[in-house]
Amino acid sequence: MKKHTLFTCFFSLVTFGIWAQNSKVKFQLFGHIQYNLDQINTERNSYFSTGEQDLFVTSQIHERITFLGETVVKYDAATSAKFAPSIERAQIKFDLNNHHSIIFGKMHTPLNYWNDVFHHGRLFFPTIDRPNALNTLVPLHTLGIRMQGQNMGDLNFGYDVVVGNGISSTDVYDANTNKAVAVGMHIKPMEGVRLSTSYYNDYLPTNKPGVHSGHSGIVSAYKGALNFEMYSASVAAFMSKWEFLNEFGYNTTTTDSLGVAHNLTNFTYLGVRVNDNVTPYYVIDLTNMSDKDLHTTATDAYKMAVGCRYEFNERCIVKAQIEQFRSGMGHQHESHVPRYDFKFQLAYGF
Amino acid sequence: MDFKKNIIQILGILVFVIFSAGVMGQSLVVIGNEIGMKEMKSSYLKEVYQAKYTFWSNKKNIQVALPGTQSQDAVFVYNTVYGKSIKEVQKFWLSIVFQGRSKSPNFFDNPKEMIEFVQRTPGAIGLLKSDDGVPKNLLIKLIP
Asked: Structurally, how many domains does chain A consist of?
């Protein structure tokens, strides 16, 4: 309760600050509401859910310095109110010149197109859910320092070099001296097209997921040391008629116990804009985990989905999706049980 | 015979009207305040409005101004600069600001408000359909 009171006070103060100083502060809200109908074997469930409510604030606080904050309020069964705020991004950007800047704070890692571009905004997601790899393999956030370059040359070359707290850390503490390193590069050879690649490395003296990984829902019994590496390559083409996104990821986790585990993931999205408002799409999402992997008890997973997106305007869209999902918990590859889902999502941002 | 003559006359008038409209067609009005230049290439203008730059050559921070969705200038300006609909341009800015790769532009539903904003903001650039009420010192010549 105290947490929520503090949260409310914080936003009241910030809002008062805007009125009082008439500074260049901009507040926006993004969120979504969803309906699910799922079936596993003969068991069916039907439910509505409140999705993440994303308070997004930007401000120019100096000619060269800007602030970006993204605080998400989302369902949390551990709290009495069943909802809890979470700071997803809080970053200060210092522009060195037209193309280069330094960013301090909590940020999304530049791994994968999805994590670097869509963040928590369901309004921007071309589908209802993010790729499965973002729930199991990709370290989503870090808290540290980032050198960023963008829009250089005819190919619009861009880079990101990030040094920050690793997978096991919290928002206020990292229990070791080594830091995680992420390097990303991209080109945008034509409007709507981005080709990117990235690398991430973190050494975990103790294997445990923290707030910066997307792996916190999957707990491994292994608590020893582990070296985590991730390579990714993305092709994104969001054109006037066709939309295509492929996210490939190759992850290795190395332990003294079982050696190197090789994990693979690939997400493919294809959409066709029928007109200005309607986009039917197809998704296939695969994750293949090695039996040697000790970082997570992650699953082999396969998802195939077809859906349709309707854009009322740029600030309100609905998506409907039918999907089949197969996964085998704890590397039990033979025990895949198919789950069928119908999902309907209303996403907004203003 | 008269009927044919009338048709030819009407067609002639139509051709003249279409030609005149083309010659006298509206061109984009660019206004700027302390942006380090008095004329600008249209390709550079497009890049500025695609958020490719942060600073002008005189080191002033670029402050982009655009007609808002309710502005009568919006369709003309968006189509001329981006070749896109209002929705697509709004979506572009919403997305790029959310990514943290650019700061938010300033939208104005009233041209007068945009002119006043540019006038009081060093580094500001704005786009209009007409130069009515624009002080001459703000006008930026657009070079093809």
From this structure: 1
CB contact under 8 A, A117 and B99: yes
Inter-chain residue contact A58 with B61, CB threshold 8 Å: no
- Rounded Cα gap, residues A139 and A133, in angstroms: 9
- What is the pLDDT confidence band of residue B13, given thresholds at 50, 70 and 90? low
Is the ipTM, as predicted for this complex, more than 0.95? no
Number of domains comprising chain B: 1
CATH of the domain at A115: 2.40.160.10
What is the distance between the alpha carbons of residues A184 and A148, in angstroms, rounded to a whole number?
A: 9
Chain A nearest CA to B56, separation (Å): 8
The Cα of B130 is separated from the nearest Cα of chain A by a number of Å equal to 27
- pLDDT of A55 higher than 70: yes
Position B137 in a domain? yes
Which CATH number characterizes residue B57's domain? 3.40.190.10
Rounded Cα gap, residues B111 and A231, in angstroms: 49
Contact B54 A98 (CB under 8 A): yes
Average confidence (pLDDT) over B53-69: 95
Interchain CB contact of B8 with A (< 8 Å): no
The two structure tokens encoding residue A338: 């198919």
- B2: in domain: no
The reply to whether A98 falls in a domain is yes
Please tell me the total number of residues recorded for chain B in this structure.
144
pLDDT digits (tens, 9 = 90+) for B81-133: 999 999 999 999 999 999 999 999 999 999 999 999 999 999 999 999 988 88
The residue with tokens 């808290």 is A143
In a domain, A8, yes or no: no
Which residues does chain A have within 8 Å of residue B98's beta carbon, measured at their own beta carbons?
30, 56, 119, 121, 124, 349
d(CA A337, CA A333): 10
Residue in this structure with the two tokens 């945008």, named with its chain if needed: A188
Strand segments, DSSP code E, in A4-129 are 25-40, 43-60, 65-75, 83-95, 100-108
Contact B98 A314 (CB under 8 A): no
Interface residue of A66, A115, A159, A314 to substitute, partner B, most B CBs within 10 Å = A314
- Locate A300 and state its tokens: 């082999």
A140 forms beta bridges with none
- What are the structure tokens assigned to A64, written together? 């060269």
